[in-house]
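Note to self: keep these together.
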Amino acid sequence: MRAYELAVILDGDLEDHIAQAWQKTITQAIKSNGGSVVGSPEWWGKRRLAYPIKKRNEGYYMFFNVVASGGAMDEVERTLRLADQVIRHKLLRLPDSEAERRGMVAAAG
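Structure:
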């Protein structure tokens, strides 16, 4: 099992409740592909983007700490790439020291 951080930026033109519903959608997608979300997703809400992305100036930010086997996140990433409401996402594999600092080692074991 590997520890990941998934960052997602949703379109800022979405209504707030629709953007927040994406947390549940992404969490379910992770679980259905054999992964698990450690803790609860971090919701930053609507923020101004550092630079325009797809002609948008604002976006909803959310972050997930995920534990999954290698390759389990491929389908989740594909889903995020195809979703029109997702303007950017980034999946990072965390180094073991950072995963341990975040308390994800016990969940990965």
